[in-house]
Amino acid sequence: MIKINKDNIIFQSKEFEKDKYKFFIALKILTNDNSCVYSDEKEYAIMQMNKNLPIWIWTSDNINSNYVDEIIETINLHYNKSCKIICKKEFYNLLLEKGINIDKKMSKEIGTLFCKQTITPKIIKGNMELAKITDLDVLAKYWHDDYFEMENDNYSLAQAENDMKTMINEGNFYILKDEKEKIVCMARYTCINDVASINKVYTPVDERRKGYCSNLIYNLSNKLLSNGITPVIYTDFNCIPSNKAYQNVGYEKNGTLESFYLKGDKMIDV
Prior knowledge:
By secondary structure, the protein is an alpha+beta fold. It folds into two domains: 2-110, Aminopeptidase, CATH 3.40.630; 126-250, Aminopeptidase (3-Layer(aba) Sandwich). The chain has eight helices and twelve strands. It has helices spanning 14-18, 24-30, 67-78, 89-97, 136-149, 157-170, 212-225, 240-248, and strands spanning 2-3, 36-39, 44-48, 55-59, 85-88, 108-114, 126-130, 173-178, 183-192, 195-202, 230-235, 252-260. It has a twelve-stranded mixed β-sheet. A hairpin with a 4-residue loop joins strand 8 and strand 9. Helix 5 crosses helix 6 and helix 7 crosses helix 8. The longest helix has 14 residues, at 136-149. The chain starts with a strand and ends in a 10-residue tail after the last strand. The model is unreliable at 265-270 (pLDDT under 50).
């Protein structure tokens, strides 16, 4: 196990290339020269952009359980082990089998989707546009409402306005307006090389189940695909309506990740 950088051979391997849609955030971490990355250069890579952000563990398929102790020891030595950890569902199961002390109440599955070719949805009246600063008030409220729906009432409208202003100014935030020019859906993308993550997707409650989300994702995905970029989406597979909207326009399931926290200082049950 050694400290490595983004140019290491493991990130050019067929195994990692196969998982790049699932591990888009890992690709993002690798763009930061200050990220902490350790690996055995073959079977796994542990990545964290800074001490306060989630730790991503990439592992090859069918990795041997003997690597579990080595990976946990590396986290103990070089990472903030109180941070959220994200890995393949299969490796998470290995951790449980090996008796790693995990806070199961805080564990959560993350579905991954990708799109190589879109499927045309039922077309509705409306147009996709690049968000402008004049849309700030509406979009900030939507973003605040989204946090509230996720039971995060510590997120203020002022914070939402600041965050949304930054996102609009980045130039990759899109909206869908209906025939009356009302903003009825929003989404953003972040691009690394030839992969883009579509996120910040939100439709206000009174505009749902009208096809707006499907149409915005369809148009935004086509924009990316036409430029040789594969769009990916992280999602909750238990959220049936949004996943149906994504799959109806051509997104395919690409496996499941698990996010979790290690429990206390003693991470291995005796």
